[in-house]
Amino acid sequence: MALLNLHTKLSLLSTIFLVVALLLAHATGLAESWLIAYMSFALTALVATCLSLLFLILLALGPAPNDGIKTTLCCFLSSMVVLLRGKIALYRLQKHWKNPRRAQDRLLRHILRENGNTEYGRRYRLRDIKDREEFRARHPLTTYEHYRPFVEREINGERNIMTRKFQSSYVRTSGTTGHSKMIPYTDRFRLFVNCMDILYATARMECPNLGIYNKQLYHYVAPVVSATKNGVPVESIMTIREDTRLYYTTPPAGFRIHSYKVANYIHLLFALSDENLGSICTIFLSTLESMIKQVAQWWENIVHDIEHGTISERLDLPDDIRSALTVELHGGDRQRALEIRQQFVVGLDNILPRVWPKLRVIISADSTGIWPKIREKYARGISLVSSGYGSSESILMGISIWAWDERPDLLFTPTTNFFEFIKLQNTHESQPETQFLDELEIGQEYEVVITQACGLYRYRMGDIIRVTGFHDNCPSFQFLYRLGLVLNLRYEKIDQGVALQAFQAALERWPGRVKLTEFAAAESTLLSETCTAFERDELMPYYLIFVELEFPSGNELYEEITQDLKAMLDQELRDRNSDYDRLRREGAIAPPRVHIVKPGAFEALKDHILANTSTSANQYKVPRKLRSESLVEFLLHEIM
Question: What is the pTM of this model?
Fold first, then answer.
């Protein structure tokens, strides 16, 4: 009925403005002897005609059921502006992909000129560098420790150290030595908006039947934002302001929630209220899987809230957020609640297109390879568009212009970073030879090196990619893994060295001077429902940690190792990795499951791998990250 009323209003407004335009046109004809009157009437008639056409267009596009005229108009204009900006950005990228070397040379010259007169720039004589070959020869390859003293000086208030422009924010990343990296940015929010515009335009390009009014479920959990002593924000790379874009299903207040599970509930509540949902956007696909698991347990509460216009008392929400969100439920929608209930009673098979018939695309990064499983179980017929390749050091380094299930490749963005690449076989060297973007070879694997405008030069990312081909003259690639990475359920990226430090520090607090012999870890997202370690009732992902210990006097102390002692491993990881700590604090990652295996278990694992794979004994290394369910099952059978 609400949709009929809105259609009626738009039709009436269009008719009224058209009649006004005709009357004014007639009056203009009567007043043609007076120039001023003629011009005034003609202009007013033109405006009335345009408004009439506008409301006809709004009507033809099929507005959302519960939106009023003002909201409908604002949603239309907001979506069109974002779409236009995204298409312009994509058009520019298309031009640069035809000649990436020219784009890269221009970017490098701009960066060196822009920051050449800073203290860092003068130290490395950046302004004197004429071309990319000279830059490669004169400036060393770097890691974050090279920049830490400069960043700390800027945080303490000194100016013109790394960049000429004032730092507008610092992005906190995961620590690799117990201290987080603090990446300086002069325009982080502009870069973030540009990235989101491109993703929106790409989704519309891949799915042309995605309507302008088909809103988006944008998953977001508000991070804790701090500040330096000078008031400069310290935030995450994806921190957004309280967003008022009307093409999101979640109202602005929903973007201020810090709890992962509560944010999931609110995003699902408002998304399920809207049958016109057209797209879902999450940073990583594992987030969508967690939301589906959560809705499987809470759908009855969500349906109740949709029906009555309430928000469950089970949710720990600040009063102001709860009040603002309750108003947006408009007293409830019994018809929509009935539709949702009927779908969930049937089960979760292919649930996404059943509850959202207009859902066309999911925008996300599949960092753990779970899209085929999600598509088959929950999302048949829906496309997955990659959310691109980025990091805290650079929000956008590559994008996809192909739907994921057609081609899982990415293209470098040659105007956001100056790229160099280290061949995989040379990554162990401190200053290996590098290749430029136009020198890459198909089939080869490389470590990514970037130079960007906020003060990082020839910075080693540790990311390994494989070149798969070319689009125009720009290499396409696939992201493979991060050097040394052992754990990454969401985006915490816990390095192997950090994990080892955490485990050793925890064991020092255990009784009897227990020593660590070997360890390995796996992500619960790897497990199928048939796996021994699969926990059906656990909504959030977790780590499985296997440790082989050396007890000083036999195995008698094993009985004294309590769950509290095992929890020390979790705390040591939290102390060493800020992203992991935040995700554990929000409840986005469950506590790890720590298993102590029998003495000799890892030697038996080696024998198992050598007997069942083509791995050479001369090249064998303990797999710190278990990448197959069979290896997890093997160690589960070795538990003491």
Answer: 0.77
